[in-house]
Amino acid sequence: MSRTNRVYIIGAGFAGRAIAKDLAEKGVIGRVVAFLDDDDQKIGSRIDGIPVLGPISDVVELVGKTPADEALIAIPGATRDDIRRLYGILQQASFSKIRILPSVSQIIDDQAHFIQTRQIDPQDLLGRTPVNISLRRSLKYLRGKRVLITGAGGSIGSELARQLLSGGAERLYLLGHGENSIFEIDSELRLLQEEGVGERAQIVPVIGELSDRDYMRFLLKRLKADVVFHTAAYKHVPLMEENPVAAIANNVFGTIHLLEAAAEAAVQRLVFVSTDKAVSPVSVYGVSKLLAERIVLEWNRSSTASMVVRFGNVLASRGSILPLFSRQIAKGGPVTVTDPAATRFFMTIPEAVSLVLEASGVGTGGSLYVLDMGEPVNIRELADQLIRFYGYEPGTDIPIVYTGLRPGEKTTENLFGAGETGIPTDYERILAVRRPELDRTWLEGVIDRLRPVCFPDPGQPGIFRNRRHLRAVLHDAVPSLPVRENEPEY
Fold it and tell me: Which residues are catalytic, by number?
């Protein structure tokens, strides 16, 4: 956006005014032409010399025949229906760009910055209205603490890092095995800080593998982290069906190594981010997360208060269907849907992360929490909505084809397993789970049987990296995982 760009800010509240001030101070981004608002008390007035026009529904007439280059929606408390309505109005006005400010949960103490805005995308229009959470209040327990995020370059880990900027933490450790993703989030956080977003936490990028037990112990002793958010995992279901040993080595034993290291380093609290695919799992990935859940909950007997937060899919996460559908639409289709009856639970990444942070602050060690995801979404209907977002008609402009469920996939997912009951808490959309007592002996037996498959054991050389043996062990432990007749040995 150049200085010659003409910008209309939708919303003359605190957020819109803060962004207008930010743009004026920078002087090289663009010129705010006017605010657009529906408040009769504001329409016709001027704010810092900028006129307030309205109502917003008359934007086509208000903008005139020469539209501004950019519209910026600065109403962080807007509902999904509000945003859909505004987007439709702004599209009619032929703005070259439409940007949006994130939800109110990410706006601290009435501070908003242009750098927090981004191009509007489907996740802003789909799904339900996110719950508003006071990050300042929910992050109070992290003030002055050292916080480690595993998988910090992933969708959930990176959003945790963004929101934790406002938590008053002393240090943010960004741990991941992919140097490019860690470089990206590290650079982004530093830029946000330069632009005045958040507080002055020291940011420390760290490259490492959870499967490296000795390094994990060395690392956590050196870092002296107070709180750990464990989001790192191999997550792609069909890919992990083809690489099951890697899934168990990373997701199960990586979690064990982290917990061992956390206990030795006197970490106060560890929060494990889990998935609905851990419920009655039919995939190796799902089984790996179920075992990791139970390990974390059992580990609470150590000095580290460890807990689990489980939820469903998040919109626009890396490897999810939303980016896939968008790429398919961009090339003219077809959009591929596995099954016409397939449904999934969906939540935006910022909302899920805000709820994880709130749950971790009020939760107790040894507890399992489930985020209330609302009603499941039909994938075919989601595809239709996304196609229309891009201005096409489903089935006419962009074909939709059914491909069938892939190995490890279900038609529907559940948030609660057998014997689990959700109990409302004092916090909206956070449920505590009443669950059966864990069998520690059973869990230790499963881990002992899996270890020589993932790590060389001179006494059992024949089962190292043996996929067929691994699946047999997993099926024996979790019968919902099917045995595959054609499972190769390696």
Answer: 277
